[in-house]
Amino acid sequence: MDSQLVLPGQPIPVPPRAPAPLLGSGTYARDNLIRASLLGVPRFHGSTLTIPRVRPHPPAPNSVILGSVTRLSPLQALISISVVDGVPLPAGEEFTGVIRSQDVRATEKDRVKIGDCFRGGDVVRGVVISLGDARSYFVTTARNDLGVIFATSEAGATLEPVSWQEMRCPKTGKIERRKCAKPEGL
After folding, report:
1. Residue 174 CA, distance from chain mean position
2. pTM for this model (two decimals)
3. Alpha carbon of 53 to those of 27, 36, 166: distances in Å?
4. What is the C-alpha separation between 93 and 10, in angstroms, rounded?
């Protein structure tokens, strides 16, 4: 069986002419088809077909996180971390991250203005540097693939990245400054 991700309710492909597998956790049968009850990759354990449950875990150094900007100050941006290493955290169990001005980009660290890099509500991809203080994790966006991945303009439209530090509003054509993440696959 190839390692293809399945969604809940989606039929799980079973090799033709193979004996019907026993159903394990994360699977069920309906309409003579074996279906997924969890998001994941189907696995055979002997003759039992299962989809292992992926458990969320707190951020650790080098974890890739997604979060939304909740507060800005001249020296740092606070983010609410909602995804750790591709696994969403349960509702209400978000962690707080801090992006300091020296952690925004790798060059010209002393010239960074937080207000030109992030705005409230922006969705940011970052990497945890360290555990920080008792309330938050230190996060960096100092790589090309890290930074703002989703933002809305003042007009309410979804911004489109133009360069690593600019996004354009498709409705008004106005350019807004952000520290953009390089889109995946480019």
Report:
1. 27
2. 0.76
3. 11, 11, 39
4. 28
